[in-house]
Amino acid sequence: MKSRLMIAAGVLAVLSLPLAAQGQGMVRGGEQGAAEGNRAAGPAGAVVGGVVGGVVGGVKGALGIPAPRRDKDRIGPRIEELHGRLHITAAEEPLWATVAQTMRENAKTLRADLANQAAKRGTMTAVDDLKTFQIIADEHSAGLKKLIPAFEPLYASMTPAQQKQADRVFREHRRHSRL
Fold first, then answer.
1. Which CATH number does the domain 75-178 belong to among 2.30.29, 1.20.120, 1.10.30, 2.60.98?
2. In this structure, what is the dihedral angle of CA atoms 70, 73, 77, 80, given to the nearest 10 degrees?
3. What's the predicted TM-score (pTM) here?
4. Would you state the pLDDT for residue 128?
5. Cβ–Cβ contacts within 10 Å for residue 3, how many?
6. Strands (DSSP E) along 130-172, which ranges?
């Protein structure tokens, strides 16, 4: 009996939380879900991801679960992670520095484009949204065209064991980005 009363009180407390928190969580969750869905499956994935993210974000907002911090420098931790996972040696550091710098420049360009598009988000039409997707896809392509020539000499300098590890790391990243 007491447990039912406590459950009812808990449900009542959740339902009485400010709707603003829930709404804010829905917006943030929708944005994050749409971004992940878009990255993984294109515009259709963005729609599904936005809906699912909005629901999850709304629940988190209602429960008062804080949104993750938006880290403008996501590439720094990614570069550090790759450095460790690829087992970069001291002799390979100059080649790695070129790869890391290329990754930073690509991220800076993409971040600027995303910020520019985010400023227009409220007034964009469906056609504008598709054009934005094209711009971002073009930026990714241009970034790869810079990254591949920077990475090739590093890969060529690696031991066979490091190359196998690099193959594994990139294969894993490719597989996770499709989910």
1. 1.20.120
2. 180
3. 0.57
4. 87
5. 7
6. none
